[in-house]
Fold this sequence. Notes:
- This protein has helices spanning 5-25, 31-51, 63-81, 87-106, 110-118, 121-159, 161-171, 179-199.
- It is mainly α and 200 residues long.
- The chain has one domain (5-199).
- Helix 1 (5-25) packs antiparallel against helix 8 and helix 6 (121-159) packs antiparallel against helix 8.
Amino acid sequence: xxxxxxxxxxxxxxxxxxxxxxxxxxxxxxxxxxxxxxxxxxxxxxxxxxxxxxxxxxxxxxxxxxxxxxxxxxxxxxxxxxxxxxxxxxxxxxxxxxxxxxxxxxxxxxxxxxxxxxxxxxxxxxxxxxxxxxxxxxxxxxxxxxxxxxxxxxxxxxxxxxxxxxxxxxxxxxxxxxxxxxxxxxxxxxxxxxxxxxxx
Length: 200
């Protein structure tokens, strides 16, 4: 991606950490977690690789079409999975955005810049920015009540012996099964997507 190096490295770290947690979620005992975790891990690591500063590593010309093909296949899988619930529609938009960014990076040399702009592609960037900005704001607003509720549960648990047992049960929940962490991962990837689209 274009732009200063240190924000790009922060974005690489954020996306790679998110992808690693999504791999952990693939071992979850909850079917809903497992069904989405693989695609989200692919998104996280793909975004991390794409965010590496161009001054450090410039992928060969064949890499971007390969990226586009991989995420196009992921988009087709998201279309099929969308029958199970609306959450997969967000995966479809995300994988579509990755295909778009891959093709844009392939055309990013200066020789193609004016022809690229003349096709109206910035309009696509703007639409994706609006979508992911809205997604980030909505996801953040939904995540705050979860954190408050979790804090309240902990306080109540400390008050009674029975609550302590409940707290122990909550603490025993595997990291891959925690829905609030899954939402935080999706929020992180949404933020990363906004940053990447702005730097495109």
